[in-house]
Structures are given as C-alpha cells and as structure tokens.
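[stage:ingest] chain + small molecule (magnesium ion)
[stage:ingest] validated
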Amino acid sequence: MTSLLDIQNLKLNFKTVQGQVEVLHGIDININAGEKVALVGESGSGKSVTARIILGLLQELRQARISGEVYFDGRDINTMKPKDCAKLRGTAMSMIFQDPTSSLNPVITIGQQFTEVLRRRNNKLAQAICDEQATRMLNDVAIPDAQRVLNAYPFQLSGGMNQRVMIAMALANRPKLLLADEPGTALDVSVQAQTLTLMRELVNDYQTAVLLISHNLGVVREFADRVYVIYQGRIVEDGPTSALFANPKHAYTQALMNAVPRIVGTGLAKVPEVSDAFLAPRITHSDVT
Ligand SMILES: Nc1ncnc2c1ncn2[C@@H]1O[C@H](COP(=O)(O)OP(=O)(O)OP(=O)(O)O)[C@@H](O)[C@H]1O
Ligand SMILES: [Mg+2]
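[stage:predict] done
[stage:export] tokens:
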C-alpha cells in the first residue's frame, strides 16, 4: 500500500545568530490512509516543527533549511510551489492547535469562519449551503444549538465548545490528514478527554488519517494505532501502540513511561534525565505483536 504521508530522511536546520542549528536529524514517518498515528516526545524534541513542515509552512521561513522528502498523497511538499501547498491546507490536510480560543479569529462570528473554511474547497458555495453544512458539522461534534453558536463570537463560547468548533472546522472539508498538535491541553483534563473521544469517533467515521502530537502517554495510548517516539530530533522507537506500551525497548521510551505520574506515589511528573543511552539506535517494533 502506498502511504498517505511518507517522510524520508527529513532534516531541518535553523540559521540563528549563533550559526546553523540542526533541529531534525533525518527522521522517517509513515502514515497510511485512515490511520491514527501519534508523535510523542519531550518539549523541544521537534514535534511542532515536523507538523509545520508537513503543512508546508516552515518551507516559507527564510531561516529554515529543509532537506529530505515529505510525500503527501504522492507529491513532495518540500518541492511544491508555495501556492500549491497553500491550496492543500484546510482542504486535503488540516490542523488543530493547542489553544482553540486563540486559533479562532476573535472578531468574526463562528458562522462566518465556517463559511471561509468551506469556501476554501469551493469558493462559489452558496451561503445557505455553507450554513446547512456548518450546522450538520456542529451537530456531529455534539453541539445541538448550532444556530446560536454560528451567530456567536469565540469569546462567547466556553473553551470546550471552541475546541469542538475547531474540530468541526478542521474536518469540514473532509481532509485526508488531520494534524493535531497537543489538542486541548489548554483545557481542563475532563474536557480534553471528551473532545479527544469525539475527535476519535469522527475521524473513524470520516476515514481521516491523524498525526496526533502529544506529551501525554495516556492520551496516545487511547487514541493511536501506532506511535513514533522522538528524542532531540531523532525518531528513537516506533511501532504499534500495544507492542510499544507492552514492551518499550529504547532507553528513552522506558524513561518516558517511568516518568508518568501515578495515583499512588509521592511526587509530580518527572522529566526523564538526559542519558547517553537515549542516543542508542532506533528500534522498530514489527506489526506482528
Ligand atoms: N523559528 C525557529 N528558529 C530557531 N529555532 C527554532 C525555531 N522554531 C523552533 N525552533 C527550535 O526547534 C526545536 C524544536 O521545536 P518544536 O517547537 O518542534 O518543539 P516541540 O517538540 O513541539 O516542543 P513542545 O512540546 O514544547 O511544543 C526547539 O529547540 C526550538 O527551540
Ligand atoms: Mg510543540
């Protein structure tokens, strides 16, 4: 099967005042159509820059130097013209960010924002059809009083509701790939859990592939079919979620799992302490568990 997303030997350098800094050292990630994949790793390991490269956004930044291949649906995002890549965003691929309220435009109603999203795919779509589709999508994310929400501004809705609106907008054009970068971590944990459950149901219904970026191993375990563990710009371990959780082999993955806070215990979550063992070669679990 050809992959929907096939990242090969992706490297990223930033030009800084201190000189060149390599942030990604040649990563490979593969996602099949409809598959739910997680990318997990500590702060600064390179998760968000990877998402921004897939969306073709970092390629537009002058200080960023990118090499390797990022095939999305058979076309290399790295060599695509910026305007062709822009057409993919919000249509064939879309993104959900950490903080829904700041990702929505505060001075435009939810209804108008929906119309803009839907017209990215078809700019002649009549207003009545936009409203009808937006209403249906809001119902799908468990917002029954869609009319009130469409007339509202983001600040008039709760964080959890804005998060559901973001999910509805991100899926409105039935993208093939959804990138979700720490979705809902700005919300309280129960609302975050509800919205993730909802997102999982919807992507299953719509057959959308997902790259879920998260620090939270509990969320990853619930959500993803397959996991990539990233450490300092390198993928150190990957495999089916069940195999990786049952038998984490890489020293960094083991440390990450040991750092998860327990209900019984004494302290707060620990960040794994840096160890030379974390630089051990990559481990891939086979698909047979
Ligand atoms: N525009 C930039 N210029 C220079 N360095 C950058 C730039 N953007 C990101 N970086 C660096 O790239 C590295 C990876 O950043 P990235 O945002 O991908 O981390 P992350 O894994 O998403 O972390 P977090 O979990 O905190 O969101 C970091 O060391 C960061 O400082
Ligand atoms: Mg990030």
